[in-house]
Amino acid sequence: MIYTVTLNPAVDYYIGLEEFQEGGLNQAKTAYTLPGGKGINVSKVLKNFGEKSVALGFVGGFTGDYIKNDLKSEGIEENFVNIKDMTRINLKIKTLSDESEVAGKSPNINDEEYKEFLSKTKDIKSGDILVLSGSIPSSLPQNIYEQIISELPQGVKVILDTRGETLRKVLKEGIFLVKPNNHELEDFFGEKYSTDEEIIEAGKKLMKLGSENVLISLGKDGSILITKDGVYRGNVPKGELISSVGAGDSMVAGMIYGISTGKTMEESYRYGIASGSSTAFSQGLTDFESMKKLLNEIEIKKI
User: Fold this and answer.
1) Please, what's the largest Cα pairwise distance for the chain?
2) Pick the catalytic residue: 85, 128, 161, 249?
3) Which of 66, 196, 208, 269 is 20 to 30 A from 116 via CA?
4) Cβ atoms of residues 188 and 165 within 8 Å
5) 249 assigned to active site
6) Per residue in 6-51, pLDDT tens?
7) Could you give the 3-state DSSP secondary structure of residue 50?
8) Cβ contacts of residue 161 below 8 Å, gap of 6+?
9) Could you tell me if residue 255 is left (phi over 0), alpha (psi between -120 and 50 degrees) or otherwise beta?
């Protein structure tokens, strides 16, 4: 089974404006809501690819109900902990010239709710895949990812998509795959990278710190996968960028799809690139057919 963990989900409220007038009344031209959260996005793309997963995390209030009902409507299994506080709302404002975001305040999660969540992770068994992604609410122990991993049975593939000090702490627990982008990698090591060689060297440092594989997203410049068998450089297929929201999560989902269906890491990487690109070229998360159409355009070179 594949499990995705989203500790700090949100309802993302998207508003489209021609121009934002600071201090004045702004009339939305378009508006819609979507469940937000990196693990939730991974579960959704996996569902689109015909793969089952269980979404774990915390939800509360009418916003939490919205997220649970949305997943239910899409046939995605969830085992969230229902909390007393309300799941946050993120505001995303897009004008003709810019994009801005206001991240909502994370809910308070009490000790009883935290213990209930940990009890749900006991269902994870050897051979399963566990995706840990996104931020940790301030009310939770900041070592929660480490605690989850330390209590897992041997043979669970842990995929980590987070940043900063959280990434640093969790790496030492032993990770199957981490997925930073080049900017997160620079922030992590406090350095600037201008060449592939420098980025690859930084990725290999992450392997020494505890990750078996490292997938580095470079945006429009492609990506790099580092494994024990070598270093692979992938391109970005041609297409019109519509929205980058969820593209990184889709890349993770594509990798997981390949791994869970018995593909090699290089083959899984191809699915990852196609999935991330397909979402970037779509209004929303990719489906299987859209991803599949891009597979033949993916070029991967071992370097």
Assistant:
1) 57
2) 249
3) 66
4) no
5) yes
6) 999 999 999 999 999 989 999 999 999 999 899 999 999 999 999 9
7) coil
8) 38, 131, 132, 133, 134, 178, 179, 248, 249, 252
9) alpha
